[in-house]
Amino acid sequence: MLQARNHPSSPRRGAGDGTLAKRPFRVHTVQHLDRIDELQGLSEAERFDMRVVASVLPFRVNDYVIGSLIDWDNIPNDPIYQLVFPQRGMLSDETYARMAQLHREGASPEAIRALAAELREGLNPHPAGQLDLNTPEHDGEPLPGLQHKYRETVLFFPASGQTCHSYCTFCFRWAQFIGDKALRIASSDAARLHDYLRAHPEVSDLLITGGDPMVMKTRKLAEYLEPLLEPGMEHVQSLRMGTKALTFWPYRFVTDDDADALLRQFEKLVAAGRHVTVMAHFNHWRELETDIAHEAIRRIRATGAEIRSQGPLLRHINDNADDWARLWREQVRLGVIPYYMFVERDTGARHYFEVPLARAWTIYRDAMQQVSGLARTARGPSMSAGPGKVEIQGVTEIHGEKVFVLRFLQGRNPDWVQRPFFARYDEQATWLDQLKPAFGESEFFFEAEYRAMQSR
User: Fold this and answer.
1) If you average pLDDT over residues 69-73, what whole number do you get?
2) Exposed, middle or buried: residue 136 (CB in 10 Å: 0-12, 13-18, 19+)?
3) Residue 313: its H or E element
4) In terms of pTM, does the model score above 0.85?
5) Which of 230, 244, 426, 444 shows the smallest number of beta carbons within 10 Å?
6) What phi-psi label fits residue 73: left (phi over 0), alpha (psi between -120 and 50 degrees) or beta?
7) Closest residue by Cα to residue 130 from 184, 205, 193, 196
């Protein structure tokens, strides 16, 4: 059961002010760069670069991240700094030059917004068929705000959860945060979600995602969760909530005004026989150093919910095996289950963060060699591509040809799952669509069927 907030936590190991005391939430956007004291040590040119990049890619950070997670003596190389603050290299030279020119000319906000909208079109705002292939229908009508890509799992994007306590610079859902309703996936219609679930008994898992549903008040979140306990919903056994709050605002689970109510909601769902999982996004072991993060994890686990961790492999942030091994070991120590190492998706600032697949597999393998079996639950490197989640299982040589060994962990057709297939080894490839079939084959086994799905 939920315990009192004054439960003793482990000794503090990190710098900053991530203690257990209640604190106000204060956020900074591109309009507030000059009020962030820690940025005053940067040159005017560096702050100008930030404004230019933040005109195209969304930027948001809060005082906890600034004061508790970033080592300001290690700028710009600090991984959390790279995770949240815009860097010039996140835009191509051409994109940067066009936006920088407007800023130098003192262009109007309207002109900057218009150019930003044009530039974003080239950043693949919705990869892997999110809008075209994943939106389901009910009673002949599309259901915006829902995605149903895999048979057993439905994703729901609550409208009031489509922001985050801070934004990740690599985020593949950056299009949710730029104010363009045509690109935003969101719904506030709880009834249509529940009607859809009742009509689809094959669905066992509901993932509430964003953005970050943990920015929502508990009473609002309960509108989506409570009906799942009603008759006719017994098939929805697993409830997942995707969140970065354990990194960006762990106070949500400890000292926020409705933190106790949130954890009581978890307890209620667990007591009713549902499997509740907080799908935590972690990118670096430094995110787990503060007392408040430890206490948030402890309190969530005390409800009977579990925490699984996932995150992409990112250049400038975590592209080495030692950091991943340390992250997974610390998560296991705290009771968090390592779940996925993803490949950075083909969207947004991908050119800044992406790592070649061959190197990604080497990093994953070398990290796995450093941890016990309890941390080897992390699958990867996994590409969340259009056809499904494709894992790189290894590099080998067959009949004299060097190849990638691949398999589907999830597929638009369940029959694809766990089927091994092979691609020609390519030291530069960073995504599935850059790979070619091995052994002289003209295409991968799933491609014809996937094309048919796209043409419907």
Assistant:
1) 97
2) middle
3) strand 306-313
4) yes
5) 230
6) alpha
7) 184
